[in-house]
Structures are given as structure tokens and as C-alpha cells.
């Protein structure tokens, strides 16, 4: 048997925009390693991510996580063809740790460096599971910091925002509601689990920006702040009445309100563009109800839903490597070695 060297690029991706130190290694669209070290437990008692704590944790986790990824992939660092790193958006100090590590690797190994957009990487990661992205496709990005609908012509350079949240992000709403229900942090996974034993129709919570008047100005935008307040008021009223709070019902009804609006608007955006494939990415895409509801409603319209497995939805290095690999495959010019970390990098700026 003759073993042919693969012509596809071997790319190492580094993700440090929030509280996950992620190192991914991919060859083309094949995932070879996805090592993640999370500092989430260090933030739990504060009810949210503490930037300084996250930065320090990235620093400590960086080298061991790179070593773990290389071991899993069965490669040596010198085998890598390119380094990709999240340049933004995210927490400034946290991003800096990843960008500095990526520059050190790029210089030490004499390999090209690609500073990529975190949000675009959440879309690109789906290629590792479902193959090349259709062009164009509609992407819905729902995470702790973002909720947006994007028209993606080319994930390495042509991403047009169609709508976004005007207040809280979807993941933020999950985190805040979990906190007021005393369920802990991060809120998404625990609400998802708690909702299983509750009724999604027990409480009719508001669907933000869905009235006819709202749709005139905010057809593809989201708002979750009113929903969070509605949940808080409902729980307070219940507590005042002395009756126990039916936590599972509140969780399930709240989750239904979020998922209903997300799916409705994503399908509307895709239909309005004549697009029949939707990619859902970001931490909230791990939500079990969102996945089922999107699939159910989309299939009736002949629209295909692509959602990566939950581990690829939350922050990880594989997504960064996936986007970096696409940059190499498309011959994009690498980033300069004085690449800055940009905490508010817009989604239209895919390669820094
Ligand atoms: O993409 P991500 O890991 O980090 C950011 O870039 O923000 O998303 C984290 C967010 C958190 O708000 C978390 O509560 C939410 O994703 N999340 C979920 C689920 N798993 C994580 N939300 C709903 N259901 C889940 N199963
Ligand atoms: Zn993210």
C-alpha cells in the first residue's frame, strides 16, 4: 500500500475569546483534535465570566492544551502548515493571550498566521461535520455575546448581517433567567436539562419583536430583555403569593419563547433571501429544544437545517482551525505578525 501525503493543509486553531482555551487541529475538513480547557467553574460563584480570571486561566492552560491536541492528532507542531487564532470579538485580555501564543508559534515554526473572526468561525465549524457550506447560506449565531442572522456568501470574506439582538444576547437571557431561578451558571445547559420535566405551554411568555409593528422596523432583529423581565415578574408574583415556583415549567416556557422567536426569524430571513439551508452556531445552538423545533418547522418549508454536534457549538479551537483551513484553501493572504486583538471586531471583518 502506498501512503500518499495529503495535499490538504494541516491547520492548528487557537480560541481564547471568553472562558474556553480551545486548541483544534484540522486537515482540510477533517477534525483531528479538539482540546478544550474551560475555566467556567472558576467563574460560577460570580454568576458570569470574570475577564481577569479568564485571561490568567488561558495563560496557564495554553501549553498543556496545545500538547494535548498534538498528542490526540498524532502530529508534531512542526508538521502544521498554518496557525489560526481568534483575533476578535471577545474579551480583550483573553484574546491577547491567544493572539500572543499564535504569533509565537507562527514565528517559531515559520508558518503563516491567520487572525480570524470568532463569529465566522462558529459558522465555519459546521464544515467539519457536514462538509462544504452551501454558498450562499443563512447563518444564525446564538451565543452568550451575540444573536445574529447573517447571509454568508463565503465564510472567509463575504458575511452580511441581516439582523441582531437589540439588547441581550440569547445565551445571556438563558444565563440571567437561570440565575433568577437559582439554577447556577452557565444557564443554558441547566435550563435545557430542567426544561425536560416542565411544560413549554404552562406560561405564555412574550415573544420579542414579533408584533406587526415591530416587524416593520425589526423584522430580523431580536430582543430578549423584555422576556427576561417578564420571567422575573412572574416569579416574583408567585413568590409573593406564597406558592412554590414551578421551576421546570418556567424553564420550559422561557426556553420555548426564545426558541420560537429564533426559529421563526431564521426561517423568515432564509425565505426572504431564497436560501434553503440554514446553519445554526454558537453555544445556544447546543440547546435541544432549538434543534428539534428548527428541524420540525424547516422541514415543512423544504429548508435544511445544519447544526454541528453540541461540543462544536460552544467555544472551541476546532472552529478556528476550520476557518483557518478554509482561508488557506482559498489562498487568502495571511495576517501581519503585528496583528492586533480586536475586542469588538465586526462580523464583516472575517480575516484581520
Ligand atoms: O458560543 P459560546 O460557548 O460562548 C460565546 O461566544 O458566548 O456560548 C455560551 C452561551 C452561554 O450563554 C450558555 O448559557 C449558552 O451558550 N448555552 C446554551 C446551551 N449550552 C450553552 N444555551 C441554551 N441551551 C444550551 N444547551
Ligand atoms: Zn462563541
Please characterize this protein's 3D structure:
It is globular, with a radius of gyration of 20 Å. The protein is built from 13 helices and ten strands. The strands form two sheets. Strands 3-2-1-4-5 form a five-stranded mixed beta sheet, with helices on both faces. Helix 2 (51-73) runs parallel beside helix 3 and helix 4 (118-124) packs across helix 13 (317-329). It is an alpha/beta fold and 352 residues long.
CATH architecture of the largest domain: 2-Layer Sandwich
Distance between the termini: 43 Å
Radius of gyration: 20 Å
Which shape, going by the Cα principal axes?
Answer: globular
Order of helices and strands: EEEHHEHEHHEEEHHHHHEHEHH
The oligomerization state is: single chain
Small-molecule binders here are:
5'-O-[(R)-(carboxyoxy)(hydroxy)phosphoryl]adenosine, zinc ion
Task: Assign the structural class, choosing from mainly alpha, mainly beta, alpha/beta, alpha+beta, or little secondary structure.
Answer: alpha/beta
CATH topology of the largest domain: Nucleotidyltransferase, domain 5
Indicate the CATH class of the largest domain: Alpha Beta
Question: What structural keywords apply?
Answer:
single chain; about 350 residues; Nucleotidyltransferase, domain 5; 2 domains; five-stranded mixed sheet; 13 helices; binds 5'-O-[(R)-(carboxyoxy)(hydroxy)phosphoryl]adenosine; binds zinc ion
Amino acid at each position: 500500500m502506498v501512503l500518499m501525503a495529503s495535499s490538504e493543509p494541516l491547520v492548528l486553531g487557537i480560541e481564547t475569546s471568553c472562558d474556553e482555551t480551545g486548541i483544534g487541529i484540522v486537515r482540510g475538513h477533517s477534525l483531528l483534535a479538539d482540546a478544550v480547557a474551560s475555566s467556567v467553574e472558576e467563574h460560577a460563584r460570580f454568576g458570569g465570566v470574570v475577564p481577569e480570571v479568564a485571561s490568567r486561566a488561558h495563560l496557564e492552560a495554553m501549553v498543556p492544551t496545545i500538547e494535548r491536541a498534538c498528542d490526540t492528532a498524532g502530529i508534531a507542531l512542526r508538521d502544521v502548515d498554518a496557525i489560526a487564532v481568534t483575533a476578535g470579538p471577545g474579551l480583550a485580555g483573553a484574546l491577547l493571550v491567544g493572539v500572543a501564543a499564535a504569533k509565537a508559534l507562527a514565528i517559531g515554526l515559520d508558518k503563516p498566521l491567520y487572525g480570524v473572526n470568532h463569529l465566522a468561525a462558529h459558522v465555519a465549524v459546521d464544515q467539519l461535520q457536514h462538509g462544504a457550506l452551501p454558498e450562499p447560506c443563512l447563518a444564525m449565531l446564538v451565543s452568550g455575546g451575540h444573536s445574529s442572522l447573517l447571509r454568508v456568501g463565503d465564510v472567509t470574506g463575504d458575511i452580511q448581517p441581516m439582523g441582531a439582538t437589540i439588547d441581550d444576547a440569547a445565551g445571556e437571557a438563558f444565563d440571567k433567567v437561570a440565575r433568577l431561578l437559582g439554577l447556577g451558571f452557565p444557564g443554558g445547559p441547566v435550563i435545557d436539562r430542567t426544561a425536560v420535566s416542565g411544560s413549554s405551554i404552562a406560561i405564555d411568555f412574550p415573544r420579542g419583536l414579533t408584533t406587526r409593528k415591530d416587524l416593520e422596523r425589526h423584522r430580523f432583529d431580536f430582543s430578549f430583555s423584555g422576556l427576561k423581565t417578564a420571567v422575573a415578574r412572574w416569579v416574583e408574583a408567585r413568590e409573593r403569593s406564597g406558592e412554590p415556583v414551578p421551576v421546570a415549567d418556567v424553564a420550559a416556557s422561557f426556553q420555548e419563547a426564545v426558541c420560537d422567536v429564533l426559529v421563526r426569524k431564521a426561517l423568515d430571513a432564509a425565505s426572504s433571501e431564497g436560501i434553503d439551508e440554514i446553519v445554526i452556531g454558537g453555544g445556544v445552538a447546543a440547546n435541544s429544544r432549538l434543534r428539534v423545533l428548527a428541524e420540525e418547522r424547516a422541514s415543512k418549508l423544504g429548508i435544511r437545517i445544519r447544526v454541528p454536534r453540541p461540543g462544536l457549538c460552544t467555544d472551541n479551537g476546532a472552529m478556528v482551525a476550520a476557518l483557518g483551513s478554509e482561508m488557506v484553501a482559498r489562498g487568502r493572504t495571511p495576517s501581519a505578525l503585528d496583528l492586533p486583538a480586536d475586542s469588538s471586531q465586526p462580523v464583516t471583518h472575517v480575516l484581520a
